[in-house]
Amino acid sequence: MADEIVFDGRTVPVLPGQTVAGALWEAGIRSWRTTPVARAQRGLFCGIGACFDCLATIDGVPGQRACLAIARPGMVVSSRHDLVGAASPGTSATPGPPSAARYDVAVVGAGPAGLAAAATAALGGSRVALIDGAGQPGGQFWRQRESMGEGEERGYRDWPVFAGLRSIVEERVDHIPNATVWFAEPGFVLHTTAGRVEAGRVVLATGAYDRVLPFPGWDLPGVVTPGAAQALLKGSGVAVGRDVVVAGAGPFLLPVAVGQAAAGVRVIGVYEAGDPRGYLGRPGSIVGVAGKVREAMAYAAALARRRVPYRVRHAVIAAYGEAGVSGVDVARLDNAGQVVAGSVKRVTCDAVAIGYGFTANLDLALMLGCATRVSADGGLAVMVGGEGQTSVPGVYAAGEITGVGGATLSVVEGELAGSAAAQAAGSSDPLSGRELASLRRRRRRLRAFADAMHAAHAPPAGWPVWLEDQTLVCRCEEVPYASIAAAVTDLGASDARTVKLLARPGMGWCQGRVCGYATAELTARLCDRDVRRDDLATYAHRPFAAPMLLGDLSRPT
Question: Mean pLDDT score of the chain, rounded to an integer?
């Protein structure tokens, strides 16, 4: 029998390990917050704590992200948000490692790259701390509930890789869970929600989150990112809806659709804005990555068995509904990414999972001064050398923050960065020369494949045409497209920073995590030029990497 939490006086069943958002979603509650300006309904959107749409008051503490909070029996959850005199969203600092604790290498992030870096550095004899905001290692890729049932690991790709890395970490690494790093000092001192950690070398493996493009109706409850749909299913055992549309661009749409269908969901269709036939223009990129091809074929076969339509060069251009999404408009796109006249069709659904690749989580890298570049997918990435070294001595980076490329590439980069950090710390080389050479070759092959992937699954060039004047671009500050256009055309803004100052996109709860890419692109297009690194960096620089309580900021460390 399930335990219960209380939401606005109503009892809601909750299963072990479910998040508050997962429990509410399973109970049919899609929204639990209203926006301050339009009084619009909001609930779950990103599913991993990046967007702040799912804020709720939990056990009397306002501003808590329901997608991150694990539901405990007896919890009282309220949709009220009286923030006067209250703390900012986040979790108060809890006792953690002593301030004197110092490590040879500190790894931030326990996803594929972070686990590989921590395990490799530890095998070289370094004293390693692995710091992660989640309660369990694995990141979003190997995300699980607190307790998994018999055989559930079969639903995860490369689970043996995870099990092997986790075993090394458990034996040799100080794993510090539930510890979000909110500030980093040169030297290096990492301030976390579980205390302070000092290290001689740092490996940043902070991952990425879904990249979204605005369209009319994208702020309706029930419109979520693919990552949110996956997090609900993997982390809480909850399907995102009954009749679901999966859309956007990128290979990630395939496992999301297959996972939902396997859970009994009617997946109405997968609408890919790109065209996988683009890989054929780069045949060399497929050489040496047979596993990727087999994986894609397996997903395609799973969709075919369940008779789920897969449509390339199709995009969701609008969503409709009252209390939540009830339908979307799907359009066919031409080779230039423009809507083909007469191709728009209305599709009925109760949930939409939509995203266009990923945005790297660069908060700490930029805080420490690491140089960045515009990557192959049009986003911002950390510049690294052959072994993951950044422009800042002592700081290494691995995984999606160096350029989105998937879990397999992240593990390879994590091993290289972990080995380099261990050697720099004076430990023995955990990898032989032959192993290092093999990893470098594999990284080159996987990076070439990633570049081909981004070309084949690029966001459609015509997406700004879908916007109406009142389409929100910034969800937090409720900034419509018309205000961004006016900042350029009427007020003379010529860069993203000026648009941010004049129209306020990116100045709300999420600090540009959701709207930053779209606003930078819109600004560049309105100015009739290509997007620049500085445009993207405007929405990636933040004074703190996570929201913190004012009391914690004033407490001596």
Answer: 92
The whole-angstrom separation of Cα 345 and Cα 333 is 12
- Per-residue pLDDT reduced to its tens digit, 47-64: 999 999 999 999 999 989
- What Å distances lie between residue 118 and 158, 406, 411, 549, CA to CA? 18, 18, 11, 29
pLDDT computed for residue 550 by the predictor? 74
pTM reported for the whole predicted model:
0.93
90 has a pLDDT exceeding 70: no
Q: How far apart are CA 508 and CA 513, in angstroms?
A: 10
For strands 325-332 and 345-348, give the pairing: antiparallel
Q: Which domains does the chain have, with CATH numbers?
A: 3-78 (3.10.20.30), 102-208+363-454 (3.50.50.60), 212-356 (3.50.50.60), 467-538 (1.10.10.1100)
And the tokens for 52? 């702040």
Contact, 173 vs 539, CB < 8 A? no
Q: For 136, which DSSP code?
A: S
Contacts 24+ apart (CB under 8 A), 211-214: 211/355, 211/356, 211/357, 211/358, 211/359, 211/379, 211/517, 212/354, 212/355, 212/356, 212/514, 212/518, 213/356, 213/459, 213/463, 213/517, 213/518, 214/467, 214/471, 214/472, 214/473, 214/481, 214/515, 214/518
Structure tokens at 236: 């809480």
* Average of per-residue pLDDT across 137-161: 73
What the block records as the tokens of 261 is 């269908």
Task: From 18, 33, 124, select the one nearest 78 (Cα to Cα).
Answer: 33
Q: In what order do the strands lie in the sheet with 266-272?
A: 223-224, 351-356, 243-249, 266-272, 310-312
Kindly tell me the burial class for residue 85, based on how many C-beta atoms sit within 10 Å of its own C-beta (0-12, 13-18, 19 or more): exposed
Q: Which residues contact 240 (CB under 8 A, 6 or more apart)?
A: 25, 224, 228, 229, 232, 233, 260, 265, 351, 353
Residue-wise pLDDT tens digits, 91-119: 444 444 545 479 999 999 999 999 999 99
The tokens describing 386, both together, are 């052959």
> What does the DSSP 8-state code read for residue 428?
P
Residue 392 CA: distances (Å) to CA of 221, 290, 375, 396: 42, 36, 19, 8
Paired with 485 in beta bridges are none
DSSP 90-125: S------S-TT-EEEEEEE--SHHHHHHHHHHHHTT
Two tokens, residue 551 = 């009391």
- Asked if 458 contacts 378 with a C-beta cutoff of 8 angstroms, the reply is yes
**Is the Cβ–Cβ distance between 363 and 254 less than 8 Å?**
no
Respond yes or no on whether the N-terminal peptide bond of residue 188 is cis (omega within 30° of 0): yes
